[in-house]
């Protein structure tokens, strides 16, 4: 079988497995609260759940739509299905896939990139599942260590540690754009400190501005060429 | 109530769902590895991508485990274990659980106030609020990617694609938002221009970035390419260590 036919077949099966896995996981996750409620002797209060959804769910719905539109092209078919099933996109799956792509030297939108993303997200998800399963299994003896006062600052700073490493990795590729973006976001948070608690929502305007500026630079470069 | 939330049937329900998702991950991993080999990708690159993804994920996974521990006091262990293993995100779960708790009349998200109905409602809302990515993937992943690849083919004939620049730009924007928030928090977090906020995240990020620069130097200039697999995880560890020492 030649490469084109092989990849077409691979792509078709990926969508088939991805859709089936998404549908079954969704059914299991929505069904579990009802089953647990049945076992505990009380079903979910649907009216309270609807009110709760209106208060916080709308934000997460919008965020999910944006995440789908932005991240699916980065992750490709298999990586996309898996990432949305396994979660922890911004703090784990996306940087992990980008790092793997960097190591393998693949370009966005190519079959190689699709394969590396899927491999990376599957490995990352399995690692998380294994670490959590071991952690839950060893919860009792591990708890004193993990909850020890001395280690709390380390775990409270996982995200800054991640973004520090990524800042070096990405800022050096386009220093001008990084300076503009960093100064803009820093000034925004200095003058409107209430936004600090909503940093994840601020990724959208920040990303939109940097993509817009990169697009203008790309067009200018194209005209000069 | 907490003993009911930590009962064997709940472990079996949540563990069963996690096992299903683990099986899906294994299927995708094996298929993608085989496909990479079949289309002629370098096996050593595939293995390095795999190793780096595993090492990269261990530290954040320990952080997520802490989230399970944090939530297990009020929701028991099985449900947070499921949520954080499968679909959830650390920053999401607590926020939604808290909002659901308020709607069912609990003053705080605590085991002392928890009732079976409150728990089932909280669990349902946690599932519903974050399911949209999966639903969108189910309906639109195929069509969306097909449309994008069509556009790419049209544009690739005339000039180089914008895709890679856009990805780099998006990540610069993402990282800038977080680093900017740490600086903003230090400068104005405790009142405008008081410089009394928390300096730790800035120092942690700086140490992590410095460590990363060392890894990139060794990898690019000294040809120690194998270090790439551990660069992010080790840089994070250095940053986190700085937080402990501060």
Helix/strand structural class of chain A: mainly alpha
The Cα radius of gyration of chain B reads: 22 Å
Task: Please count the beta strands of chain B (DSSP E, at least 2 residues each).
Answer: 0
The gyration radius over C-alpha positions of chain A equals 21 Å
Average pLDDT of chain A = 85
Please, what is the oligomeric state?
heterodimer
User: Beta-sheet strand percentage of chain A?
Assistant: under 5%
Structure overview:
The complex is a heterodimer of chains A (225) and B (246). With 225 residues, chain A is mainly α. Chain A has helices at 3-40, 46-86, 89-104, 111-137, 139-146, 152-156, 158-171, 175-191, 199-224. Chain A has a domain at 174-225. Chain A is globular, with a radius of gyration of 21 Å. The model of chain A has no long low-confidence stretch (mean pLDDT 85). Chain B has 246 residues and is an all-alpha fold. Chain B has 2 domains: 2-134, no CATH class; 163-245, no CATH class. In chain B, α9 (200-220) packs antiparallel against α10. Chain B is globular, with a radius of gyration of 22 Å. Chain B starts with a helix and ends with a helix. The model of chain B has no long low-confidence stretch (mean pLDDT 83).
């Amino acid at each position: 079988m030649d490469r084109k036919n092989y990849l077409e077949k691979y792509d078709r099966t990926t969508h088939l497995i991805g859709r089936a896995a998404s549908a079954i996981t969704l059914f299991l996750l929505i069904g579990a609260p009802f089953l647990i409620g049945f076992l505990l002797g009380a079903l979910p209060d649907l009216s309270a759940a609807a009110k709760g959804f209106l208060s916080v769910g709308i934000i997460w719905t919008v965020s999910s739509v944006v995440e789908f539109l932005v991240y699916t092209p980065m992750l490709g078919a298999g990586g996309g299905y898996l990432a949305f099933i396994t979660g922890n996109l911004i703090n784990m799956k996306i940087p992990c896939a980008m790092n793997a792509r960097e190591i393998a030297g693949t370009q966005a939108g190519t079959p190689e990139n699709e394969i590396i993303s899927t491999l990376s997200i599957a490995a990352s998800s399995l690692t998380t599942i294994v670490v959590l399963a071991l952690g839950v299994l060893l919860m009792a003896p591990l708890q004193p260590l993990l909850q020890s006062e001395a280690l709390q600052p380390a775990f409270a700073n996982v995200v800054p540690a991640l973004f520090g490493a990524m800042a070096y990795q990405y800022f050096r590729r386009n220093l001008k754009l990084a300076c503009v973006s960093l100064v803009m976001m820093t000034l925004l948070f200095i003058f409107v400190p209430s936004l600090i608690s909503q940093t994840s929502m601020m990724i959208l305007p920040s990303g939109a501005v940097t993509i817009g500026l990169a697009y203008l630079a790309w067009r200018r470069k194209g005209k000069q060429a | 109530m907490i003993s009911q939330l930590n009962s064997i049937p709940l472990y079996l329900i949540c563990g069963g769902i996690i096992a299903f998702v683990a099986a899906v991950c294994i299927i995708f991993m094996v298929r993608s590895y085989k496909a990479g080999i079949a289309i002629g990708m370098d096996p050593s690159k595939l293995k390095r991508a795999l190793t780096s993804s595993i090492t990269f994920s261990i530290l954040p996974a320990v952080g997520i485990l802490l989230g399970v521990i944090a939530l297990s006091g009020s929701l028991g262990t099985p449900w947070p274990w499921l949520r954080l293993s499968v679909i959830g995100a650390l920053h999401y779960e607590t926020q939604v659980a808290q909002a659901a708790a308020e709607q069912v009349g609990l003053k705080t998200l605590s085991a002392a106030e928890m009732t079976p109905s409150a728990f089932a409602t909280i669990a349902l809302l946690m599932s519903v609020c974050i399911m949209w990515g999966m639903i969108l993937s189910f309906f639109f992943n195929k069509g969306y990617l097909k449309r994008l690849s069509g556009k790419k083919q049209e544009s690739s004939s005339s000039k180089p694609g914008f895709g890679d620049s856009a990805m780099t730009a998006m990540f610069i924007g993402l990282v800038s938002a977080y680093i900017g928030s740490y600086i903003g928090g230090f400068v104005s977090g405790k009142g405008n221009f008081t410089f009394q906020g928390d300096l730790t995240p800035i120092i942690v990020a700086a140490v992590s970035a410095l460590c990363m620069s060392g890894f990139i130097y060794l990898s690019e200039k000294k040809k120690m390419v194998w270090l790439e697999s551990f660069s992010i995880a080790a840089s994070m560890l250095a940053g986190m260590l700085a937080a402990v020492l501060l």
